[in-house]
Amino acid sequence: MVDRLIKQGYIRSKNLERALRTVPRHIFVQKEYWSSAYEDIPLPTANGQTTSAPSIVALMCEASLPFSFLFEIGTGTGYLSSVCALSQPDGFIITAEIFFELALRANKNFQELELSDRVNVIVGDGSRGLNSKLIPDTIVVSAAAREIPKALLDGLKEGGKIIIPVGEGVQELLLVRKINSELLVSSITSCIFVPLLGKYE
Question: pTM to 2 decimals?
Fold first, then answer.
């Protein structure tokens, strides 16, 4: 899988390559999909959610690097957070999941991969941002928004970045940088994500 992603240009960082070779994708999907776990396709998890295709995870993680404190909205079963954590070994991640069942599954996966000291999952509405004194320098949204939630922009560190799919139907995966309180927006790729849930969607 990783060899294919490198050949197709999805992986440039050695740290990301190492992370994707280390994280076993099959533990993040239901057993009936294990035979497809290393294909470049999204796969169902629970509660109508999916785990993203490895190519999209690679692009999102690549765009997030480097980070010191990453806040993810939409943990799912924890695949993207796990890959990001191993790509940035000195980084810290808080990831928010609105469905309790998925948060439990993700937490179990983080424990299995010995990432619990650097990846904390919380149950709640991530679209509201973090109700905390901690201010992320990187935000990754693993669900599609009609527009970038203002609460996330307001809660982003100056000089930080947001990676988020925006739009309805086929979306654009955007990289948004906050520079001198201005937003610099660039498109990474077209994509299809499940909708962002919560107050600001």
Answer: 0.94
Catalytic residue among 13, 35, 52, 81: 52
Give per-residue pLDDT as tens, 16-54.
Answer: 999 999 999 999 998 999 999 999 999 988 877 888 999
- Pair 195, 143: CB distance under 8 Å: yes
Which of 121, 91, 126 lies closest to 107, judged by CA?
Answer: 121
Catalytic status, residue 52: yes
Low-confidence stretches of the chain (pLDDT < 50) are: none
- Provide the residue type at 96 as one letter: A
DSSP SS3 for 71: strand
Name the percent of the chain lying above pLDDT 70: 99
* In contact, 161 and 64? CB cutoff 8 Å: yes
* Residues in Cβ contact with 99 at an 8 Å cutoff, skipping those fewer than 6 apart: 46, 47, 49, 123
Alpha carbon distance 47, 197 (integer Å)? 12
What domains appear along the chain, each with residue ranges and CATH number? 2-191 (3.40.50.150)
